Amino acid sequence: MCQLLGMNCNTPTDIMFSFEGFRRRGGITDHHADGFGIGFFEGKGVRLFHDDKPSADSPVADLVRAYQIKSENVIAHIRKASQGQTSLANTHPFMREMWGEYWLFAHNGHLLDFYPEQGVFYKAVGSTDSERAFCYILNSLRSRFPEKPDEETLFAAIAALTAEIRSHGLFNFVMSNGDCLFAHASTLLHYIVRKAPFGKARLLDDDVMIDFAEVTTPNDKVAVIATLPLTRDESWLQLAVNELAMFQHGDIVRSDKPAEPVYMSTEEGLAIARAVGVSV
Amino acid sequence: MCQLLGMNCNTPTDIMFSFEGFRRRGGITDHHADGFGIGFFEGKGVRLFHDDKPSADSPVADLVRAYQIKSENVIAHIRKASQGQTSLANTHPFMREMWGEYWLFAHNGHLLDFYPEQGVFYKAVGSTDSERAFCYILNSLRSRFPEKPDEETLFAAIAALTAEIRSHGLFNFVMSNGDCLFAHASTLLHYIVRKAPFGKARLLDDDVMIDFAEVTTPNDKVAVIATLPLTRDESWLQLAVNELAMFQHGDIVRSDKPAEPVYMSTEEGLAIARAVGVSV
Description:
Two copies of one chain form a homodimer.
Chain A: E1 3-14, H1 16-24, E2 36-42, E3 45-51, H2 59-67, E4 70-78, E5 94-98, E6 101-111, H3 129-144, H4 151-166, E7 169-176, E8 180-185, E9 190-195, E10 200-203, E11 209-211, H5 212-215, E12 221-226, E13 231-232, E14 237-238, E15 243-248, E16 251-255, H6 266-275
Antiparallel strand pairs in A: 1-4, 1-12, 2-3, 2-4, 5-6, 6-7, 7-8, 8-15, 9-12, 9-14, 10-11, 10-13, 15-16
């Protein structure tokens, strides 16, 4: 199973602390050695970094760390290939333009027999189930909405498409248009909303500590979404199984959480990933 | 006026020597200080680096140099803003997916009153004339060809669209889909095809020399396209005014060079750029 990382904030924020723990899962503390990718929105623009080297020793990851890019929306992914050969064209996040906005998408999971008809607007360049799912979502939205609909309509449409796609298998994803971030859990997806009063936290994957109070202002609100919690000393929350959440300005603003939510244990989630042949 | 750089080869080639001279025009030997961008095709995938810092002292440019990415098709651009504010969304090269391929586009020039109707397939995200021109080309091609046409038809279609757009002003561009590279000169665009027997060359913008014989094999063929020649000790050729050339496997394979080609002097080309308010 690959690992996902997302960030959604109400002010441009440096993701380096979270990224530092996350990237170490790509080859040091965990085995996701088939490349990584990270996309930062800056205004309407996107700064996108892809690498087919393990994130733990990638010079691109070094740059990302050194550069301290501040962003309101970040989508990142460490890949352990399950479908599709390892190549740059198969490296998440995938990007397309829709309605005059760039959209980024990263997927963790495995879709069985998912070969929807190639749509009119978007075609997969690589050979992953993930890019096919992303193109299917965008083609469906564009066919239905020539112009961008209001948020409630958009959320409902993405939720319906998500339910359709997850009938094909494991479909954890994060997706953003630079304004909001959609996160969906088939199995494991955790998040935390950091806001005042800010405390301290220590990375699970590295002996690095941060005092958020020193690097934030009292109005900052930062949501970090990750496959598995990245820090100790903090209470991470979990998306329910089959929950789609929409983050905006650093917090969840919409969700289709089931009336009787089920939360999957980490052990169970990892076992499911292994059972469908997705390496963990 | 911004500076363009393109490379098209028959084998994955390191562009670092050319890029080293090129990037120094972004703030050291010339004044193109509003950011730069470079996109490398690797197979069907694209590695894209954008920066709004001058290329001469950009850490992203340092990474590009250190990383020694080998690619068969490269599109790069140093920007001096003429239309549209300086922002990441306005930084070339622009990227879109068409027919299941990524396309990269970079423009040097200035289009007057160029506000084509927003097409069905692609919309500009930023506010430049350049991105509008790119979207116009892609929208027109996609509307006419639901599937990718043969090369002759594609070249003729792009040539016709180019002629239409250049009626609005200065339209030097380079564009690639990872297989071939289209280069068009309204005014100044130079190129060189390096092949065996390889010689030595020295950068015009830096005291760096390279012996291509040491870094190539006898079968290599590498075309480098740039606004102005990058080296001494080599004979750069020039695209004629209003010529569209298609490079493939390191050489020009198609061109619509006028029957009586006109070649613009550097002085004249720079004067035209200044006259329409494009900084040089």
